[in-house]
Amino acid sequence: MSAKLLLLIIKISWLSLWRNKRRTFISLFSIIIGTGIPIFFVCIAWGFYAGLIDDVARLMSGHITYEHKDYRNSPSNDLWVGDTIKINNTLTNNDNILFTKQIVNLQGVAHTAKGSVGISLMGIEPKKEIAISFLPENIIEGKYLSKVDERLVVVGEKLAKNLNIAIGKKFVFTTNDIKGELTEELFRVKGIFKTGSKEIDGHLIQSNIAIARKVAGLSNDEISQLGIIVKNPDEHEVLIDELQKSLAKNNGIFLSWQKIMPDVATTIRMDRTAITFFMIMLVVIVLFTMFSTILMSTLERKREFASLLAIGTQQIELKVQIFFETIFFGLIGCPLGALVGVGVAKWTEGYDMLNVVGGKSEDMSVGGFGMDTVITPLFSAPLIMQICFFFFLAVQLLSFFPIHLISKISITDELRSA
Amino acid sequence: MNSNQEIVSLKNVVKNYGSGQVAIKALQDIDLKIYKGDFSVMMGPSGCGKSTLLNIIGGLDRVTSGSVIFNGKDFNLLTNKELSLIRRNEIGFVFQNYNLLPVLTAYENAEYVLMLQNIPISQRKEKVMNLFKEMDLEGLENRLPRELSGGQQQRVAIARAVVSNPLLVLADEITANVDSKTAQSLLTLMEKLNKTNNTTFLFSTHDPIVKNFARKVILLKDGLIDKEEQASKNI
After folding, report:
1. Same-domain check for residues A408 and A274
2. Is residue A212 predicted with pLDDT exceeding 80?
3. In the structure, what pLDDT confidence band is assigned to residue A365 with cuts at 50, 70 and 90?
4. Do both A168 and A217 map to the same domain?
5. Which residues of chain B lie closer than 8 angstroms to A310, CB-CB?
6. In three state form, how does the secondary structure of A74-121 look?
7. Between chains, do A412 and B96 touch, taking CB under 8 Å as contact?
8. B203 alpha carbon, distance to own chain's centre
9. What pLDDT is stored for residue B232 in this prediction?
10. Residue pLDDT, tens place only, B30-55
11. CB contacts < 8 Å between A and B, how many?
């Protein structure tokens, strides 16, 4: 087939699309809907997930966590990692890393006159925490910690209620140090936070890392976890391998947030699977509409194809013509669908989903972590292109049956029926 | 104009539709020769086998038995693709309903066959424009088929059929959809092409006007050639 003939066939394909404008517009509308809806859902859902992952990573121990290799199985106070000043300095100079946060975690019991509650004390660096985590912004009473605060803590709203403590009030924290010795410390409440997560608001307290180290009996070079916030969370797995090879000590291991927070990871994975399944169903329904219009447009031109075959057009040339018709459908419909999907997602940005689904923000949690219900779409160009390409490919596959029908055309029967 | 160069030779051609006791015998034991420069017409009542015979000569249909030799090539020995190439390069078709591509202009419809044959653009343009001039289609080049009258569309269809100088042009009931005046002018045009270019024409028709132009009349009846006669009009 010569280039000129191919160009003519392409021209015929293009012009044939507009012979029945209404049908072409219906087909294009189907493709736009079929591409636009999945892109809209993906932008919204993936935005929720990205926001959740980022919030959880920043609040807890980062996208990547460096900790004792046995800490995951049994997060006890005596499982710590050392030499962290050197490691931290190296990480700070890595271009792929935004922040690092040193954490000392201590499991223990908080006592007041009202009673005792099992809690998790998180020793942090206040200045960094203010820069990284959303928790300091969620102080509802009192103030967040500063570097100079020694025996001051911030506690969750629910915990404060359970212990019947308020700003300025004291409670005793009992735990084991790294040698297994029972130890106690008196803390005074500087601030009360509310994250919307029952787990965090009911069991977490934060103190300055210095006092946490002192209670645990750790040196300045020793911590429970080193949290790493990366620039591109999607590529953190690659970084883990690199860090594990170059920086990990004998008893230390770099882990991804999925391993640190498996509940969150599993919930997101399940949710993504459900959305993907739903989208595939939608795509199948839309493709059926497309299929019938493409098929109809081929069937009603059987006589025309027969006459072209009669004058010496090869079957392959007619097949190329139909194939290009669907290519044009895809080339017009898929980008328009992407524009519509992205446009609608952009339009809904900032809208609180609670207005639609109802309920309270504290009820919206994933794996025990509160979820931001305000829509913050994620516009991932590769993901949007992937969906477009998938739909484009699916539309092309639809043309296979009409193309196959070309081989079945009986020239004499079609010309006789004229 | 008639030469002794044999273009088509049919020998003992039989065409049945269906098989066994319900088989319909469309053509029975047909022997026919078409020579270069012929201007022949096949006539006969409906169902006598005119279109079937035309389809077989044009390589659109295959025989049940017998042989069709076209320009030295035995159709029985050719694949569908090879038959398609013969139709592309050596046969022109004109249909009752014109069957022009509705999305292409008159010029592009005529040019289409030349493009299939991979003729260079300069030659294509020259051939089509000369033919359009000859066929009084000048000024209509950029019109779509729907913007042309029935007669004009049929002239474009004839242009498409003859533009590549095929050995044989097969015309099936080409005057059925036009008035008698237009039919007359179409036939005059084809007769002119036959005279000037020595193009061979074979018509299948009911229309007595066509018979008036023909130099050979083949009368078919019940799938058999009833009579083959030289027409009274001699060129």
Report:
1. yes
2. yes
3. low
4. yes
5. 58, 60, 87, 93, 95
6. CCCCCCCECCHHHHHHHHHCCCCEEEEEEEEEEEEEEECCCCEEEEEE
7. no
8. 6
9. 58
10. 899 999 989 999 998 888 888 889 99
11. 74
Same domain, A38 and A84: no
Average confidence (pLDDT) over A352-363: 72
Amino acid code (one letter) for A111:
H
Do residues A200 and A320 share a domain? Answer: no
Residues B115-133: tens digit of each pLDDT: 888 888 889 999 999 889 8
Q: What share of chain A is helix, strand, coil (3-state, %, to 5)?
A: 55, 20, 25
Q: Is the pLDDT of residue B2 over 60?
A: no
Contact between A15 and B81 using a beta-carbon 8 Å cutoff: no
User: Do B84 and A4 lie within an 8 Å CB cutoff?
Assistant: no
Contact (CB, 8 A) for B181 and B150: no
* Of B51, B89, B97, Cβ closest to residue A312: B89
| pLDDT tens-digit readout, B51-88 | 889 999 999 889 999 999 999 999 999 998 899 999 99
Q: Which run of H or E residues covers position A400?
A: helix A400-408
What kind of fold does domain B37-59+78-230 have according to CATH?
Rossmann fold (3.40.50)
Q: How confident is the model over A16-60, as pLDDT tens digits? A: 888 778 888 888 888 898 889 989 988 998 898 888 888 888 888
Measured between CA atoms, how close is B124 to chain A, in angstroms? 12
Q: Give the number of domains in chain A.
A: 2
Same-domain check for residues A247 and A283: no
> Final residue of a domain: which of A199, A227, A260?
A260
Whether residues A160 and A15 share a domain: the answer is no
Distance to chain B for A302, nearest Cα, Å: 11
**Would the CB atoms of A313 and B161 count as touching at under 8 Å?**
no
Contact B24, B18 (CB under 8 A): yes
In terms of CA atoms, which chain A residue is nearest residue B157? A311
Residues A10 and A95 in one domain: no
Residue B206's pLDDT is what?
A: 85
Looking at residue B235, what is its pLDDT? 41
Mean pLDDT of A366-378: 74
Q: Could you tell me the two tokens for A257?
A: 């947030």
Find the CB nearest B113 among A12, A15, A311.
Answer: A311
Q: Domain boundary residue among A201, A236, A260?
A: A260
Supply the DSSP string of B24-74, one letter for each residue. EEEEEEEEEEEETT-EEEEE-STTSSHHHHHHHHTTSS--SEEEEEETTEE
B113 and A312 within 8 Å at the Cβ level: the answer is yes
**Residue A321 belongs to what domain range?**
3-55+265-416
Residues 296-335 of A with CB under 8 A from B: 303-304, 307-315, 317
Question: Residues A384-399: what's their mean pLDDT?
Answer: 89
What residues of B are in the A interface, CB distance below 8 Å?
A: 51-52, 55, 58, 60-61, 81, 84-85, 87-89, 91-93, 95-97, 99, 101-104, 108, 112-113, 115-116, 118, 121, 160-161, 172
Identify whether residues A33 and A154 lie together within a single domain. Answer: no
